[in-house]
Amino acid sequence: MTTLASLETPCLILDRARLERNARRMTERHKASGLRLRPHMKTGKSIDVARIALAGNFGGITVSTLKEAEYFADHGIDDITYAVSLVPDKLPRIAALIRRGVRLGTVTDSIKVATEVSHRAVAEGVVVDVLIELDSGERRAGLIAGRPEIPALGRVLHDLPGTRLAGVLTHAGNSYQCRSLDALRQVAEEERLCAVTAAGQLRAAGLPCPVVSVGSTPTATHGQCFDGLTEMRCGVYMFGDVFQSEIGSHDMDDIAVTVLATVIGHRPELNAALIDAGGLALSKDRSTGAEGLPEDAGFGFLADASGRARIPGLRVGKVYQEHGLLESDGPFPFDLLPVGSRVRVLPNHACMTAAMYDAYRVVDGPSDQVVDLWPRINGW
Amino acid sequence: MTTLASLETPCLILDRARLERNARRMTERHKASGLRLRPHMKTGKSIDVARIALAGNFGGITVSTLKEAEYFADHGIDDITYAVSLVPDKLPRIAALIRRGVRLGTVTDSIKVATEVSHRAVAEGVVVDVLIELDSGERRAGLIAGRPEIPALGRVLHDLPGTRLAGVLTHAGNSYQCRSLDALRQVAEEERLCAVTAAGQLRAAGLPCPVVSVGSTPTATHGQCFDGLTEMRCGVYMFGDVFQSEIGSHDMDDIAVTVLATVIGHRPELNAALIDAGGLALSKDRSTGAEGLPEDAGFGFLADASGRARIPGLRVGKVYQEHGLLESDGPFPFDLLPVGSRVRVLPNHACMTAAMYDAYRVVDGPSDQVVDLWPRINGW
User: I want to staple A357 with a disulfide (CB 3.0 to 4.6 A). Which of A12, A307, A339, B212 is the partner?
Assistant: First the structure.
């Protein structure tokens, strides 16, 4: 049996017990809310992770790339929402997915795109389900609830051949900026009102709106009212990370993915040490106290090699391509971390960090045994 | 023949003509300086790129991971410096490389590591070439020139079985912080003095120091004096990027790698548009005007789909996992960039951006033809 000690570093460790606990918690929360939970697989990008996230749910997922959609379809998942703005050039791959039996939801906020997609879909001999994308405050893609563009786009999607109006969808990515429970609850309610308002506009125009979909891990976790919604999409809750922990989505000891790294140098005169996990192994998502977070995580907090105990006061303060510089609030614990010893880095942003690896080394709770290797699908 | 228009986006485009020009310029510069140029392949991570970088040079390369070393050895390169602090746990892979005939240089700044490496190397039946790593001002790994630790470590590496003292090595990564030609030249001179001083210490102690190695793209480009050095290591010059361009290592139109992306949405009320290249497609290395650079590049500047002309005043202002938000200094040029049209993103930091892809789509100068597909080696 492989042990942690025998792994080459840096590598990505996934604690299956924590993943299962995180997945179960969200599943139970939305059993109670009455929403269909459609886990977003952009974080996990693994069929093994998806199977755990789908336990107790209806079986549909969300993805952020067509490569994910194709991979999950290859593994038997047949209800997939591709939640990044559709463009006509992607129609051949979308049509191929539909033809192989995938119920594929897509999103747009543009009549021009809808019209071109209609032409291309007719040419491909398929009908594409399209949700109207809404901007509930993130200021990324989407239409603003209440505006006349929504029923106008709905009418086009409903009436044209080749497209089918499937509902509305929004993502309160602005919840990541919240620094209090009150603010999170308010953003969750704005997300809900946005989706429900737009759904009401469509229905008032005599149009169907079967799906009313919202989602982000913070709003899925802290939303108080889900009236009028049908579906919740969220992803990072499965793994957790320092950033979600700092904004209150979960506890620090819920974090299920970590990077195993080796201490490769001591710099006593800098009160610092080096590990073999840098910008490529951790990603460059930085968290700072200046953002109003409780604690500056730099490029990630540290735990011992077992992943059981965080080492307080320690963070990855700087990253280079393959080096991470560990900084300490107090005197650096050189004796605790000799050169050659190992640590775990708790990632700031699990989606970005996991994307640097092509597989998870799976452990099961506080054990040194590596019980499995789960491949990931990266790229486009 | 594949054309740019037929590629799925996002994808990584490499202009071979620019790569060859950049490589030739550095090769000629160091033919003149008399140093052996040992290109750092951590940026390119491709044998096809290495062959171009090695044209006219002695044939040795630098790498940042053992996976790179193994890959390049598989492709016939047999003189490789692994320029990240050695730890004893990596000895089995290092010994395997040496046994297959690779002249492998390694680095350390620690007597403890040297001693343990000696034991392990003897057990493996190999002798490991080790360079003493120096800190010439970056404040990452390395010993400080002039300190007694240098001859002490040199003595250990020279006397112990299983290790061979191969010389000294430093990397002026602090050159990236320079904001003027004078400052760059000063850092280059500090890098040189550091290496030459340490080499002098070893020789004064009766120890050999065949290799005196320095390197970073800015100091390789702007250094004025190379006396006492034997070797230059640099990597990003092959590709160039926005950051190197802003600090004066090359011109903006020397940038050889770009990300081809599709405009996927317009947001007139935000004076912005969206592309399908976000944090994963571009990496999250951000450049800001606040860092004293001439212009805020956000997460990258924009060029037209041909890659020939930069679109002035436009940048990737925000990134999400799969979305990039284009911001404009003036009114957004929506007519120039309709939804479905394509752009090229000039990357801030080529090493990080290229690492998000498993291959280059190769073009040859200002042509729409994709002439080759060159795989990359990522991971560890």
Answer: A12
